[in-house]
Amino acid sequence: ARQLRDPAFTERLERTLANHPRVDPRCLELEITESGALDGIDQLERILQRCDQLGVRIAIDDFGTGYSSLSYLKRLPAHVVKIDQSFVRDVFEDPDDLRIIDGIIALGRAFGLHIVAEGVETLEQATLLLRLGAATAQGYGIARPMPVSEWPEWVRRWAAPAQWHTWARLLGSPWINLMARIEVEHRAAFLHLQARTAPLPPAHDCAVQRMLLEALPASAQDWPEYAAFVAAHQRLHDAAERWWQSSDPADADSDAQLQAAQHQLIEALQQLALRLAGANGHEPAPPSVSAVEAVH
Q1: What is the Cα–Cα distance from 200 to 267, expressed in whole angstroms?
Q2: Which of 14, 98, 249, 289 is deepest in the core (most CB within 10 A)?
Q3: How many CA atoms lie within 13 A of 12 on its CB side?
Q4: Coil, strand, or helix at residue 292?
Q5: Where are the alpha helices (DSSP H) in 169-284?
């Protein structure tokens, strides 16, 4: 922020770019934090507009943590918006974080911006964010900081996990987004169970079951993927009730039956999502507006 307040910054930047004519200015990206833009937005806007004219890319960092996010999107000539890691970190534990991420992605798309999720530490986080529409991620889940000398070899060896390619081909399907949100609602309920703060309700009264029945086309109930979900869903609720009622329950993480049932349900939800998104070449009509609103 201090450098960007300097009126001579753009002149120095222009001279530096001119001294390296073989470097594409688009390879340079300036990150602006929301907190850094709080003061002097008018001057910052002028400086960044000049940077944009030079071909330099602008990224708004830590998006969602300030108080004027929409104003920044409107006024600053940004190309990239970075979702703050505080929302990414707890996305499986707090459905509100997921709703914030979903909203930021929708805003970014509306403004034609590239979306980057920060602080991605696990394969599961990256996969979920990809399904929500954040096709770029950064964090320890990709790689930890490394010396420059190690960078070329890492690039040569690194390959995206196969499941990322699977979901990436289906980006844009409303079913992918809807099923991701349903999965997070379930994961949050399961975490409450593990912490022994709330049991799971009976399977027939489960929010996941209700949301699916509201959203799915009638024909989907005849699919083998839906039958697999129903069976996995019942197994999980049976295992959860047994564990909850136990007079001396083991730690949930060490209860093999409960953890296996959880894993099977997540897998069944994702296989159903792939079928709904047309992974087999046939995608049903989009979910109704009422179904989408019910999940929110």
Answers
A1: 19
A2: 98
A3: 7
A4: helix
A5: 174-194, 207-215, 224-245, 256-276
Tens digit of each residue's pLDDT (9 = 90 or more) over 36-61: 655 667 888 888 999 999 999 999 88
Element at 137 (helix H, strand E): strand 136-137
Residue 207 CA, chain-centre distance (Å), reads 22
Pairwise CA distance, residues 227 & 247, whole Å: 33
Alpha carbon 93 to chain centroid, angstroms? 13
Q: CB–CB of 49/30 below 8 Å?
A: no
pTM for the model stands at 0.84
DSSP string, 46-113: HHHHHHHHTT-EEEEEEETSSS-HHHHHHHS--SEEEE-HHHHHTTTT-HHHHHHHHHHHHHHHHTTP
